[in-house]
Design a protein that fits this description.
The chain has 202 residues and is mostly helical. It has 2 domains: 6-66, no CATH class; 71-178, AhpD-like. It is built from 9 helices and no strands. It has helices spanning 11-22, 24-27, 45-48, 52-68, 73-87, 90-102, 107-115, 124-139, 144-178. The relative contact order is 0.13.
């Protein structure tokens, strides 16, 4: 997808653009770039401009997950990076490894999350969050035993938050894949000839 520039946006697109760059993502610590040098939105945000009514709702959900959720910062970033690993989403990995470092994740923990090795995480609760997020991203469900463990550790409200988080970041990973959005400095994934591959996460 072509990067949309601020000067070519219509009124609805411009309102969404301002909401993104002036909201908590833009006014808090800048751990990854929201815009390129010409002001175009990075990552999944550029595609949100295609349908501003949906883009407003989608970016607001993401802001609620990141800034108004109850999961500890490390747990939240662990879960996001698990989704990035399942979907092999380079932009999500790039952005949220930076956020994860700021939340206290060590480089060895980030490498382990890339490889799907949750045993390297420091705490039992964090390992449970990673395992639960992996089950949700891989299978779209939890067994009775997995649900009970997650409920006992996080509460039912925590399970709701975690399922919302996984669903949101899986949606972004899907859009990043379809629109071939790369991490800064990388090429996007190639589009294969012939029928699309079945299934979701790689």
């Amino acid at each position: 997808m072509r990067r949309l520039r601020p000067g070519e946006l219509d009124a609805d697109q411009r309102a969404l653009y301002e909401e993104i760059v002036s909201g908590p993502r833009g006014t808090g610590p800048r751990l990854f770039a929201l815009t390129d040098d010409a002001g175009g939105l990075e990552g999944p945000f550029n595609a949100m401009l295609l349908r501003p009514a949906l883009g407003h709702a989608l970016q607001a959900l993401g802001a609620a997950i990141r800034y108004r959720g109850a999961l500890p910062d490390r747990c939240r970033e662990i879960a996001i990076l698990v989704v990035a690993a399942v979907w092999d989403s380079a932009f999500e990995r790039h952005a949220h490894e930076a956020v994860g470092r700021a939340a206290g994740l060590a480089d060895e923990e980030l490498r382990a999350l890339r490889a799907g090795d949750h045993a390297a995480l420091a705490g039992e609760r964090e390992r449970l969050v990673a395992d639960t997020a992996r089950a949700l991203a891989d299978r779209g469900d939890l067994t009775g035993e997995e649900y009970a463990r997650a409920r006992d550790a996080l509460g039912e409200d925590g399970v709701f938050e975690l399922t919302t988080l996984v669903g949101y970041y899986a949606t972004l990973a899907l859009q990043l894949r379809v629109f071939r959005v790369a991490a800064p400095g990388e090429d996007g994934p190639a589009r294969e000839d012939g029928p699309a591959r079945g299934g979701g996460p790689a």
